[in-house]
Amino acid sequence: MAELVVAVVQEPGHGLDVSANCVAAAAACRVAAAQGADVVVLPELWQIAYSVDDDGWLELATPIDGPYVAEFRRLARELGIAILVTFLEQTARGVHNTAVLVDRHGEVVLRYAKVHTCDFDTERHLVPGDEYPVTALDTRSGPVRVGSMICYDREFPEAARELMLGGAEVVLVPNACDLTDDRFGQVRARAFENMQALVVANYSAPTYNGRSCAFDGIAFTDEEHNRNHCVLEADAGPGLHLARIDLDRLRQYRAHETWGDAFRKPRTYRRLAAAAAPAPPFRRPEARR
């Protein structure tokens, strides 16, 4: 059986103490590797434990080729495990909320800058990304098509759909907010409607409410009986949790079921990509279209 084992790190973090956050993540990666994980996913902006309300947080931004990412590249090579690293990225355009996927050979194979930044809050100081890349991640079970969303992206069905159209089989989602029932339901819906696995890593209590989760996207059995495709739902406390994705079963399901891109009618969706300003009641002066 071709299987992808994804480990989600659910910890409270250490605020702006970048070194302590790095040490905690490295310890979790070692445990995950010992437990047979293929990929480790950190919560959103793990570098600073999403402390975006604290003074000096923007000053901790670092380039993708800086020491923070380099340490995880070294760790990935040592452990033979892929790591989704989250941090404030300094670029010529400004500071991004970024996730980079380092493969088990220590190479950066995907960079994703959060598109749906929370412009109504302190993330207004960040520069939004503008694309949803997908990569073929080398694993023990062969290549797996992987993409990423970050937290608020999850609340826009267009983000997951773009990743589906890009061929993503598995979407890794760093998170930093309370996963309420509605937000938990969003993850289920994104996996269901795109026939792709979604794996979410959230902060534990007391930072947020944990509840890291994974849905494998296979909502029906071969006999067309409804199936609960939630393969992970963590509690609120700190811990490392494994989500197991049966890739063979997912690929067979995607090849014959009716969702994803099988019966879409894009010619009717013109307004979805229109650049026009929103009409009332959705006008927000701080929104960056």
Structural overview:
The N and C termini lie far apart (44 Å). The chain has helices at residues 18-34, 67-79, 157-165, 181-194, 247-256; strands spanning 3-10, 39-41, 82-91, 94-102, 108-113, 134-139, 142-148, 170-174, 197-201, 213-215, 230-233, 239-246. It is built from five helices and twelve strands. It has one domain (3-260): 4-Layer Sandwich (Nitrilase/N-carbamoyl-D-aminoacid amidohydrolase), CATH 3.60.110.10. Strands 5-4-3-2-1-12 form a six-stranded mixed sheet. A six-stranded mixed sheet has the order 6-7-8-9-10-11, covered by helices on one side. With 289 residues, the chain is an alpha/beta fold.
Order of helices and strands: EHEHEEEEEHEHEEEEH
Report how far apart the termini are. Answer: 44 Å
CATH architecture: 4-Layer Sandwich
Average predicted confidence as pLDDT = 97
* Shape assignment: globular
SSE inventory with pairings:
Elements: E1 3-10, H1 18-34, E2 39-41, H2 67-79, E3 82-91, E4 94-102, E5 108-113, E6 134-139, E7 142-148, H3 157-165, E8 170-174, H4 181-194, E9 197-201, E10 213-215, E11 230-233, E12 239-246, H5 247-256
Structure summary:
This protein is α/β, with parallel strands linked by helices. 22% of the residues lie in helices and 26% in strands.
